[in-house]
Amino acid sequence: MEYFSFQWHITDTCDQRCEHCYIFAEDHRARIVEMPLDQMRFVLDNCLRMCEKVGRLPYFYITGGDPILHRDFWTLLSLLKDREIPFTILGNPFHLNVAVCRRLAELGCDKYQLSIDGLRETHDSIRKPGSFDATLEKIPCIRDAGIKCAVMTTVSGKNIAELPDIVSLVVERDVDIFAFGRYCPTSAEKENHIAPRDYRALLETCWAKFEEHKDSGTTFNLKDHLWTLFLHEKGLFEIPDDAAEGAIYDGCNCGNCHLTILPAGDVYACRRMESRVGSVFSENLRDIFTGEAMDAYRQYDKFEKCSKCELLRFCRGCPAVARGTTGNMYAPDPQCWKEIGA
Fold it and tell me: In the sheet that 258-261 helps form, which strands lie side by side, from edge to edge?
């Protein structure tokens, strides 16, 4: 049975103010929201009812803000353990120590994801002074507790040149899983834009680094859907001969196997763009997922460039980056380098 994933933001509370944060992108005085325990119990039941109805297993990505700062963080993890539900924590390094990591492991934490958004000077300028060193310090703390340590990089024009060195760094530090995704503009700011050919060159460089370190203990997660185009061009990905006509096999998970839940109960198709599709407190999640608002993210024929591409059912780039850049999620992915005929 396949998983259905929920990215659950239980609190906005955080001791960083990252440049690319969605919570504070438009208003750095945004009101901090935290979901109370009774509402978290309700949300959990709503998620489990949905999974039962659609025949999927639940998987939770617990995040924030920094989820560990939620007053009932440990109670929520106990609820997940009692129901034998796997989960990953997406958080900061600052509140981790040996005892905390051991407790996370005892409660069933599968992975803990940290962020490295550049080498020391760049990372700390994006996130918080001292964040880079704190992150490196906590990697062995996580792994020694028996939890997989994942590192995620948000790539932009500001740090693109440092990504190959980040790959070497995570391998050197025995990180279990590494991935990167692209910066998604959240306002009129576009200075971190990456040109399509520059992005393809980055994938070429990173692929060489991944091959260099293929025998290391680090798994390289090809998170960005444009990897599919890259590998197709290199002859390393072929469209299956038995692929069913019209079926969606991979690419953006919006409308497929993912929902985001925010602290105030808003349900989003994707946290990386304005995509509210309902409320977890007033609607059944299954009704939201199968509803009209969600259908907008399944209208694949509307994607202006992807709909003309043979990789439509396997790629589709990133609609959130398209929307953040152009205001239209159906617009061509700003970093897609493929030329499509009229």
Answer: 219-220, 177-182, 148-155, 109-115, 87-90, 57-63, 3-9, 258-261, 266-268, 276-279
Q: Tell me which long-range contacts 240-247 makes (C-beta under 8 A, separation of at least 24).
A: 243/313, 246/313, 247/313
Q: Can you state the percent helix, strand and coil of the chain, rounding each to 5? A: 35, 15, 45
229, 339 Cβ separation under 8 angstroms: no
Output the tens digit of pLDDT for each of the chain's 342 residues: 899 999 999 998 887 665 555 555 555 456 789 999 999 999 999 999 999 999 999 999 999 989 999 999 999 999 999 999 999 999 999 999 999 999 999 999 999 999 999 999 999 998 889 999 999 999 999 999 999 999 999 999 999 999 999 999 999 999 999 999 999 887 655 557 899 999 999 999 999 999 999 999 999 999 999 999 999 999 999 998 887 877 888 988 888 899 999 999 999 999 889 999 999 999 999 999 999 999 999 999 999 999 999 999 999 999 999 999 999 999 999 999 999 865
Distance in angstroms (rounded) separating the CA atoms of residues 80 and 58: 10
Cα 88 from Cα 113, distance rounded (Å): 7
Whether pTM exceeds 0.85: yes
Distance of CA 189 to the CA centre of its chain: 21
Contacts of 18 (CB under 8 A, 6+ apart): 115, 117, 126, 127, 128
